[in-house]
Automatic annotation (TrEMBL):
Gene3D superfamilies: alpha/beta hydrolase, NAD(P)-binding Rossmann-like Domain
The protein, known as: Alpha/beta fold hydrolase
Superkingdom classification of source: Bacteria
SUPFAM superfamilies, sorted: alpha/beta-Hydrolases (SSF53474), NAD(P)-binding Rossmann-fold domains (SSF51735)
Organism encoding this protein: Paenibacillus ehimensis
Signal peptide: none
Positions of the Thioester reductase (TE) domain: 6-238
Molecular function terms from GO: hydrolase activity
Keyword Hydrolase recorded: yes
Matches recorded under Pfam families: Abhydrolase_6, NAD_binding_4
Domain annotation AB hydrolase-1: ranges: 385-621
Length: 627
């Protein structure tokens, strides 16, 4: 059994490495600051119970301290490592010089001392160092005599984060040459979330660009079409790292892990894609990167949240990727192409920037179903697939889904409709009901078994249309919670909200919480103030600060008020699967057609329109009775 010593295992890259190492036999020695917090993280990565106890050993320590801050017993255990994978250090490009030196340069010294002792005692099989694609060092330009701790003029115009990372690169290269152990330096480009979800918890990379575009703080293209920001997906990078760690006889070398400049989006194309996904105007014109960096150093960077150091990731260079391409061919991996993943990445980053610090609910995972983001709770049997309506998202239905899962044990999928939550906007026919139906149908197609489809409000109309199109082939049961079956009467403010996307989005983004609360009570969205969950209205208002989510709601309002008929939609119920309708009688905006009201499968409840949110346990009980 091989022993892997890994630093940075709780970081953005490290967690994906651990996920891919879950299926294996290696003993994993993880240098962490807090074993308790690390254990909680890894319980979600496929490690748990006796398997974790057998394979994972937490070594409490600190890169910046002598002997890596470990107690003697843990240091002795670290000396048993066959492979060192060094991916430690924060993704914080605004680190000051002292902190950057402690973290990167001192950390490399202490780790190299450990590597030397291992190699002299028993032979170190492989040292793998994760650095960055802008490092100037490679296999042919290492000066073994250079004193990295006295190179005060090295990259003096760059920020401490970059300088110290690259000096650490040089130092570890020197030590590997001096002591003779194999060294692989992996230089990833800017890392985005793993395929297929694109979930990117590290908002300090591409997230800086997303932040700048969504706040309209980037009116021009830095560098223009001749520049680019190379990108790589987290799982692709982790796959290469895991392969290198498992090589029996590594050759070492430098691996620039990024695609080719001519095949990826240039800076203009990347910003156009981000702008389209955020529903904001794309930057026009271009300015030199050096000029923009100088402007950001005046203090504007702090005011706008765009650090001058972030400009270092924008380049016009091409990179030598021959070694990486040969490695990819050896592994049989896919090319490092992320363009198709970027809409999911941008939507996820936008949601994280809109709701900073929001944690995923326990026991739920973020997945992708079709082209929609989804919250998924595992279980047995046919999945419950729940589709939300206006001003909502998957997260709002977690309390209902928790009760439903506890009652039935079935899997539950909570979908984010296009542009809502973490799903990308519709690209075409955004005012077409058929576009929403296709998005939900494609999501359902990911299930190997028939599903129990549930829709609320306008999501119920989408669910009914989906079931009608599917003709029951993939849908076991259909439940319509407060279905929107006709166009409501439009008051003046609703007419404005159902107008052009730009106007409606601006109105939604400026909507005060109290005004929204009053409107909900006036229209029977909730029957009484006490039915509104704590923080619910405030979360909606915060969501609408995202131009993407505001645009998605504007598109749905337009479809609702301009595309639906004023007459009730009453399809032949025989064309639908086994259907249940649950109707809240306190709703003052919508009416339930008699064709639905008088049928055996309809149940009336004394609540407002949003009863699945205000009364999740009752709603779950009604749903569970179908199972």
């Amino acid at each position: 059994m091989s022993n892997f010593l890994i630093t940075g295992s709780t970081g953005f890259i490290g967690k994906q490495v651990l996920k891919q190492l879950a299926q294996g036999e290696e003993r994993l020695l993880l240098l962490v600051r807090s074993p308790e917090k690390a254990a909680a993280v890894f319980s979600k990565q496929g490690f748990g119970g006796s398997e974790a106890a057998r394979r994972i050993h937490f070594l409490k320590g600190d890169l910046s301290e002598p002997n890596l801050g470990m107690k003697p017993a843990d240091y002795e255990r670290a000396l048993q490592a066959d492979v060192i994978l060094h991916a430690g250090g924060p993704m914080s490009i605004t680190l000051d010089n002292a902190e950057a030196q402690r973290t990167f340069l001192e950390g490399s010294r202490h780790l190299a001392e450990l590597a030397e002792r291992i190699h002299k005692a028993r032979g170190l099989r492989h040292f793998i160092h994760v650095v960055g694609y802008m490092s100037p060092f490679h296999d042919g330009n290492v000066d073994p005599e250079a004193d990295v701790f006295r190179m005060d003029h090295f990259m003096k115009d760059e920020g401490p984060y970059e300088r110290m990372k690259f000096l650490a690169d040089l130092f570890i290269r020197q030590q590997a040459l001096r002591h003779g152990y194999p060294l692989s330096v992996v230089n990833p480009s800017t890392v985005v979330g793993a395929s297929p979800t694109g979930a990117t918890e590290q908002t300090g990379g591409l997230g800086i660009l997303v932040h700048a575009v969504r706040k309209r703080l980037m009116p021009v293209v830095p560098g223009g079409a001749s520049h680019w920001v190379p990108l790589v997906a987290n799982d692709a990078l982790a796959g290469l790292l895991v392969h290198l760690a498992r090589e029996a006889n590594p050759d070492g070398g430098t691996y620039n892990v990024l695609g080719r400049k001519e095949t990826g989006p240039n800076m203009k194309e990347l910003l156009a894609l981000i702008s389209r996904e955020l529903a904001v105007p794309a930057p026009r014109g271009a300015l030199p990167v050096s000029l923009l960096r100088s402007v950001m150093r005046t203090g504007l960077g702090r005011l706008t949240g765009i650090p001058a150091e972030s400009m270092a990731f924008i380049t016009e260079r091409s990179f030598d990727t021959k070694a990486t391409e040969a490695l990819i061919e050896r592994v049989g991996a896919k090319p490092l192409e992320v363009t198709g993943l970027l809409p999911m990445v941008v939507a996820d980053l936008d949601h994280r920037l809109t709701h900073p610090g929001a944690a995923d609910p326990e026991h739920w995972t973020r997945e992708r179903k079709g082209d929609l983001a989804a919250l998924v709770r595992e279980g047995l049997g046919e999945p419950w697939v729940i589709v939300h309506g206006l001003l909502s998202g998957a997260d709002d239905f977690v309390p209902l889904a928790e009760h439903l899962h506890a009652s039935t044990g079935n899997p539950v999928w909570l979908l984010d409709l296009p542009g809502f939550g973490r799903s990308p906007l519709l690209r075409e026919d955004r005012h077409s009901l058929e576009s929403y139906v296709k998005a939900v149908s494609d999501a359902i197609a990911d299930s190997p078994v028939p599903v129990r489809l549930v829709g609320h409000s306008f999501g119920a109309r989408i669910a009914a249309e989906t079931a009608k199109e599917a003709a029951g082939a993939k849908i076991e049961t259909l439940t319509l919670l407060q279905p929107v079956l006709h166009r409501p009467k439009a008051r003046a403010w609703r007419r404005a909200l159902s107008g052009p996307r730009g106007t409606a989005s601006a109105l939604l983004r400026s909507l005060p919480a109290q005004a929204l609360r009053n409107a909900m009570l006036r229209e029977g969205v909730f029957a009484a103030p006490e039915e509104i969950p704590d923080g619910y209205v405030e979360t909606i208002v915060r969501s609408l600060t995202s131009p993407r989510i505001a645009a998605a709601n504007a598109d749905m309002l337009h479809t609702l008020y301009r595309k639906l008929s004023a007459e009730p939609w009453t399809p032949a119920l025989s064309t639908l699967p086994d259907t249940t309708v649950v109707w809240g009688t306190k709703d003052r905006t919508y009416a339930l057609p008699e064709a639905y009201r008088d049928r055996p499968g309809t149940q009336l409840v004394p609540y407002g329109h949003q009863f699945p949110v205000s009364h999740p346990a009752v709603t779950a009980k009604l749903l569970a009775e179908q199972a």
